[in-house]
Write a structure and sequence with these properties.
The protein is mainly alpha-helical. The protein is built from 13 helices and no strands. The chain has two domains: about 100 residues, no CATH class; about 100 residues, Serine Threonine Protein Phosphatase 5, Tetratricopeptide repeat, CATH 1.25.40. It comes from Neiella marina.
Length: about 260
């Protein structure tokens, strides 16, 4: 199964400090723990909630708030459990923080239930198994709305068990959307190598395995090709040249999605 992970939508950081937000908007900070636990996650949700209010509850801001509150809840839940076991108390700042996180997530889930933003649609599918959200997301596949690598990865996850060739096509498009290799999701390369191998397209599987190796993205296993004896010496030599060029194109942001190469 192909997995895709949520990313915060980054905007310009023109927000006031945490201290100023809490002073001007005490409701945002009320109920959150003020000790040293989960400080990073706490600051994220404070800024996210401030952004929600300052953008008139825009969908990108609401999405960031959802992801932020999920992270804060996971952290503060552990902290609250540790405190209750150690101090034998049932109510504390950390417990209150966890309760607030639960309520905020319930409220945000309800508010965004009919959203049309791709990230929110996928969120509601993966968290709530919302089939309508899933259908709407898939309906965006031939539009510019999914022209982000992480959104294409979600689409690849949809096709992986249904149409492997289509999944490969989508993964190649995802690669073409990166400006360089700095932030590339390494799973794309292993998925390309695996899917092509499963389709018995051993030449292209070898290419993507070599690209993975050249870019030092993840450990690779070339021994499988030797054991299965599926490539000739000429195949390997040609694949080596293609992989070298692909690695260079990817590093320089010049990669163009292409399914097949000439051997």
């Amino acid at each position: 199964m192909l997995l895709a992970f949520p990313l915060l939508i980054v905007g310009c950081d023109t927000q006031p400090s945490i201290k100023r937000i809490c002073k001007r908007n005490p409701d945002i900070c009320q109920g959150l723990n003020r000790d040293g636990w989960c400080q990073e996650q706490r600051d994220v949700v404070i800024k996210a909630d401030y952004q929600v209010e300052s953008t008139n509850r825009s969908e990108p801001a609401l999405y960031n708030a959802l992801i932020g509150w999920e992270d804060y809840r996971a952290c503060i839940e552990l902290a609250a459990q540790v405190e209750m076991k150690r101090l034998k108390i049932r109510q504390s700042q950390r417990v209150e923080g966890y309760i607030k996180a639960e309520q905020m997530l319930l409220d945000l889930n309800e508010e965004t239930r009919n959203a049309k933003m791709p990230e929110l649609l996928w969120y509601h599918w993966t968290r709530n198994q919302d089939k309508e959200a899933y259908k709407t997301y898939i309906s965006y596949q031939d539009t510019d709305l999914l022209n982000k690598p992480e959104l294409q990865l979600n689409l690849a996850a949809h096709y992986a068990q249904r149409d492997q060739e289509k999944a490969i096509e989508v993964l190649l498009k995802a690669l073409s959307l990166y400006p360089n290799t700095d932030s590339m999701d390494q799973s794309i390369f292993t998925q390309l190598a695996t899917l092509t191998y499963q389709l018995e397209d051993y030449r292209h599987s070898y290419i993507w395995t070599l690209v993975t190796q050249k870019l030092e993205i993840a450990p690779v296993n070339l021994q499988q090709f030797e054991e299965d004896n599926v490539l000739t010496i000429r195949d390997k030599q040609t694949a080596e040249k293609i992989a070298e060029q692909l690695a260079q194109d990817l590093a320089e942001g010049n990669f163009v999605a292409k399914r097949s190469y000439t051997f």
